[in-house]
Design brief:
This protein has seven helices and no strands. The protein is mainly alpha-helical and about 130 residues long. The longest helix has 16 residues. The relative contact order is 0.13.
Length: about 130
């Protein structure tokens, strides 16, 4: 599975935290890997699960950063898709040394085009551009 596909799977798993209690997420993660239409290799499952866990561990810190940067917006008011994309991208920009900032931003915009609303790509790009400075 390519990096873009892996990122998309991480996004889908991370999106579930918006609809489930923290204590339910272990079961949700198990269901995610069982129910996926595509067979995900064991190595890819480990990568997805590890990056997901890293993001969840830093969720409060990431949300604080987003709230400080996003003028006029708070994470509580953001659409769940946009917020999930931002969490993933901010994690990659601030904590993942393997992902260049420009790649994290570009991939986040692509996810926003695919899963977000009409204004999502520009919203995501605008906020992430501030992280790139």
């Amino acid at each position: 599975m390519g990096r873009r596909e892996l990122r998309e799977q991480i996004f889908k798993l991370l999106f579930r935290i918006e609809f489930n209690k923290p204590e339910e997420m272990e079961e949700q993660e198990k269901l995610f890997f069982e129910d996926d239409e595509k067979a995900i290799s064991e190595n890819d499952q480990e990568y997805i699960a590890q990056k997901y866990a890293n993001i969840v561990c830093k969720k409060i810190e990431i949300d604080t950063m987003i709230n400080e940067i996003a003028e006029g917006w708070k994470t509580e008011r953001m659409g769940k898709v946009d917020l999930t994309i931002l969490r993933l991208a901010v994690y990659e920009i601030k904590f993942d040394e393997d992902v260049p900032t420009s790649v994290a931003i570009n991939e986040a915009v692509e996810l926003a085009k695919k899963y977000g609303q009409d204004g999502s790509p520009s919203f995501i790009n605008g906020i992430l551009a501030k992280f790139a400075k």
